[in-house]
Amino acid sequence: MVKERFKELTGFEGNEFIELHSGLSNATYAVDGEYALRIKKPSDKAFYSPKYEKKVLMNAASCGLAPDVIAFDKNGDCVTRWIKDSRAYVEPSMSDEDLINTVEIIKKVHKLPRIFRNFSAIQRYSHYKRLSKVAIADEYEDKVVALAKTIFKKDKAVLSHNDMVFGNLIKDVRTKRIYLI
Q1: 3-state secondary structure string, 114-167?
Q2: What's the DSSP call for residue 91?
Q3: How does 74-91 read in b/e, with b if 16+ C-beta sit within 10 Å?
Q4: Fewest CB atoms within 10 A around its CB: which of 56, 85, 89, 91?
Q5: Is residue 2 within 8 Å of residue 39, measured between CB atoms?
Q6: What DSSP string runs through 5-45?
Q7: Exposure pattern of 94-120 as b/e (b: 16+ CB <10 Å)?
Q8: Residue 66's CB: how many other CB atoms inside 10 A?
Q9: Per-residue CA distances from 12 to 43, 75, 84, 139 (Å)
Q10: pLDDT of the residue at 91
Q11: In this predicted model, what pLDDT tens digit does every residue of 93-131 receive, in sequence order?
């Protein structure tokens, strides 16, 4: 299925497919040391739009913040250029220099044009709380929700990655450049 999906997206035959990691929302493969294939897992349609994600990825790639996008379909499956000499971070391996570079990338992402739809953070929080089935004391939750409402009224909305985990930061060890995926 993976080989077929790659060919559907690119028109190319891939030879070597290495599964990199399978997160909550994607399965990712290195293809021939030239491409990364991401197969989107089913996600919450209320909070995910392939149309907007494609625009964001293309814009981030054009600014050098993310790998070049080769193909992106209506479901969110995509192929990007493989970052040569790259490695994904593992938690304890981030140096002070890499942390500073990562913060600079996040600042640049926040400055990208707003090409996303607005959503209610409180509505999203309520939705994920319901899905997680985690009980939170009413008194504590009321304080958190009130603080969140204050923050969202005060600060303007900016583009955000929303999944800043170590596996989504890639470093080209040759150039020391960090990419957000």
Answers
A1: CCCCCCCHHHHHHHHHHHHCCCCCHHHHHHHHHHHHHHHHHCCCCCCCCCCCHH
A2: G
A3: eebbbbbebbeebebbee
A4: 91
A5: yes
A6: HHHHHHSPPP--EEEEEE-SSEEEEEETTTEEEEEEPP--T
A7: beeeeeebbeebbeebeebeeebeeee
A8: 23
A9: 27, 19, 19, 56
A10: 55
A11: 778 888 888 889 888 888 887 766 666 677 777 777 777
Residue 175 is classified by DSSP as T
pLDDT at 87: 67
Q: Do 84 and 173 form a contact (C-beta atoms < 8 A)?
A: no
Tokens found for residue 57: 């990825």
Tell me how far apart the alpha carbons of residues 46 and 105 are, in angstroms, rounded to a whole number.
27
pTM for this one? 0.73
Q: Which residue has the tokens 């913060």?
A: 103
Q: Tell me which H or E stretch contains 181.
A: none
**pLDDT, averaged across the chain:** 82
Q: In this predicted structure, what is the pLDDT of residue 136?
A: 74
Under-50 pLDDT residues of the chain:
none
